[in-house]
Amino acid sequence: MVEQLKGKHQELHLMNRKLLEISGVLNVESFDNEEFLLQTELGHLAIRGQNLHIKNLNLEQGLVSIEGLVNTLSYLEQGSHPSGKGLLGKLFR
After folding, report:
1. What is the per-residue pLDDT across 32-89, written as a single tens digit (0 to 9) for each?
2. CB contact set of 1 (below 8 Å; sequence gap of 6+)
């Protein structure tokens, strides 16, 4: 796994749990006010919290800013699928 990450770059800046700035984002897979799922250079990143919304999105530069109360940040293991708790999971129950 470490070999696969060489040469890839990502930065996460969390300010007071209210503003999260992320670089290295390839795609926004799903989002709602409680959960975001992002495809990043380093794998899928799940962000969970309350009243989450996109402040800034620039996929050409790979930058995303999210506002709201951030509770957890977690990278999903390679090959695993999202929990289905996000927007798409809620729509297709």
Report:
1. 999 999 999 999 999 999 999 999 999 999 999 999 999 999 999 765 555 555 444 5
2. 78
Mean pLDDT along residues 19-43? 96
Phi then psi dihedrals of residue 81, to 5 deg: -110, 155
Name all domains of the chain by residue range, CATH numbers in brackets.
12-76 (2.60.40.2000)
- C-alpha distances out from residue 67 to 9, 34, 35, 64, Å: 22, 11, 12, 10
| Neighbouring-strand partners of residue 21 | 13, 65
Task: Please name which of 48, 29, 47, 49 lies closest in space to residue 39, comparing C-alpha atoms.
Answer: 29
pTM of the model: 0.78
DSSP type of residue 12 = E
Helix (H) or strand (E) holding 66, with range, is strand 63-75
